[in-house]
Each structure stands twice: as C-alpha cells, then as structure tokens.
Amino acid sequence: MPPSVPSAVVLPRCPNRCERPAASAREGRRAARSQETRDGTESAVLSWRFLNGLRESQQASIVEKESHPAASAPPAPTPVCCTLPALPVPSCPVLSKPRIAAKWREDASWGRDIGRYIGDGYLPEELGPKLQGLERIEQLFVLQRAMAHRIRYEKGKVTVKREPGKCGLNKPVTFASNIWNRGYANCAGHCVVFASAMKALGIPYCVVTLRSKMKGKPKHAIMQVGFPEETDIRRVSRRATELWAQFYGDTVQVNAYHRQVRLYSGLKFVRSRMGSEAAKRKGLGHWLILDPVAKVGCYHHLVKNGYMTQSKKAFGFSSKPQIKSWQRAEDEAHESSSDSGSDTLDVDVQSA
C-alpha cells in the first residue's frame, strides 16, 4: 500500500488583514481596453521605427552607389516584400490663407500729376462773395476757416478702403470739387483745395512735400503762398496777429501747470532771391509757409513731428522740400502758367 501524501497545511486567516476587494466587471473592461491601447501604440511605434530604419538604409545605399558607380554591382530586383509602404500622414483640415490688405503706397497720391487736379482753379460759390475785396492775408484766414468747417482730416490709407465712387470720388487725391463735396481728405487733398482757390483768385502758390527726420513719419504736404517782392512782411505779420485774435482767440494760453503757452508766434516766410533755384521755379518774392490742415501761422505740429526745425534765431525745413505744383509770382498780373514736377527746392533764407 503506497504511503499517503500529506495534505497541504492551511494556515488560519489573520482577522486584522486587509483584503483587496474583487474587481468589478466595469473595471475589468476598462483595464482590458487600456492594455489593448497600450499594446497597439507600442506595436505602431515599433513598426514605424522599423520602416523608417529600412528607408534610411535604402537611401544610404543609393547614395553610396551613386558616389561609387564602378565598384557597385548590378542592382538586384527589389522583392515585393521589401517595398516600403508610404508612411501615414495625419489628416488635418487645410486652412485658407488670410486675406492680406494691400499696403497703401504714398507714390499713388504724391505723383507728378498733382497739378492736373488743380486745373484752372476751383472756388466754391459760397466763398466767392466772402473773399472779394479782402487783402491777401485776410483771404487766407477766411479760406482756412471755411475749409476747417467743411473738410475734416482723414489719412489716405483710410480713404482708399472706402467704396469707390464715380470720377475718383474716394481717391486720396482727386479734384477740388470732389473733396469739397465729400468733406474729407488727407494733407495733399487739403492742399489741392487750397491751391485751387488760390488759382481761381490769381494768387501765386506752391505745393511742396516735406520729409520728417523722425522714423516712421510719412511725407507731409503744405502750401507756400506768394507775396510780391516789395511787400512789407512786418506789416503783414502785425495784421495777422490782429486776425488771429479775431478768428481764433487769444494768442497765449495758460496750461495745467499754470504756465503761459504761446499759440501764435508770428508768420514764417521764405524768400526767393535773385539767381536761386527757387526763383527760377517760383519767381521772386516772399512765400508764406502755411499748412491748410492747421491754423494760419501755426507751426508747432510741424516742428514736433520733425518736418521743420526751430531754434531761437533760425527756422527752416528738416530736409529739402519737393515741388509738386506751383504758379509763378511773375504771372500774377498776367495769364498764369502752372506746371508740376518733383524737382527738389533749395531751402530759402528766412526773412526777418
């Protein structure tokens, strides 16, 4: 009789032992899905590494054969099993490129043909009776005030974004009648309206553009209004001081720091002397610097933005201005001849 096998010894359970509860069916399914996902990811990574290694080895062999064609053996036919499939490319929606707004260039409105917008001159019907019989300096004050009420300043890059109108209505620089009727323009558009009025009144003028010494500042268009050579500019300046008080108010203002700020410090003239380049272009005489966008005799914004320089005894342009259109001073009493161009103008000497 074979010997009996002793049965396993069963140890008694410890009453204080913490037992792990049996996993529920939901947790079991979740663990199974996690394991499948992990296994699938690992297999995909391994297969991608394997295919990528085969691709790199094939490219290296091709480069070696091309570099040593004599030592290379005839290529063996590539078995079908070694053909590498194309790597999967993740599918993503192709986004359309954002529409880039065309940059507005100043060359479009500062060209050589600015004189053609002035033409034979334009003077609104309501301004004709107001300007008749006035002296020249007072005509400038009346015209600037009427333009300030009628035309507001707007940058050219804002104007070009408007809906196009008939006959170039919404161009930054267009005919004076269009600008007067629509009621907005940039600095060049203001100069076109002002120069058209000067042409209709028979007053010599010159439209010039200035460059700033500060970076990022665009070119700025201003006016030069001609006065005869024999004009007493000191008397004109005294008369302008009276007109400033009449049209704009006090010439001195007290700021928040209880300091007096001089708003009007007198008119600024340049003179075209005999033999100068300016005299050849515009003729002899005194030329009042005037910005149609600002008040008559106001130059603080030009100095602040770097278009002009001013010291205790000197006042001039930061760079040589460029002529865009003019009417010669000698033709004031006769039939005026107008021309347009972009030749540079020498800085004139300031008159006392």
Automatic annotation (TrEMBL):
<feature type="region of interest" description="Disordered">
    <location>
        <begin position="21"/>
        <end position="40"/>
    </location>
</feature>
<feature type="compositionally biased region" description="Low complexity">
    <location>
        <begin position="338"/>
        <end position="352"/>
    </location>
</feature>
<protein>
    <recommendedName>
        <fullName>Transglutaminase-like domain-containing protein</fullName>
    </recommendedName>
</protein>
<feature type="compositionally biased region" description="Basic and acidic residues">
    <location>
        <begin position="327"/>
        <end position="337"/>
    </location>
</feature>
<feature type="region of interest" description="Disordered">
    <location>
        <begin position="326"/>
        <end position="352"/>
    </location>
</feature>
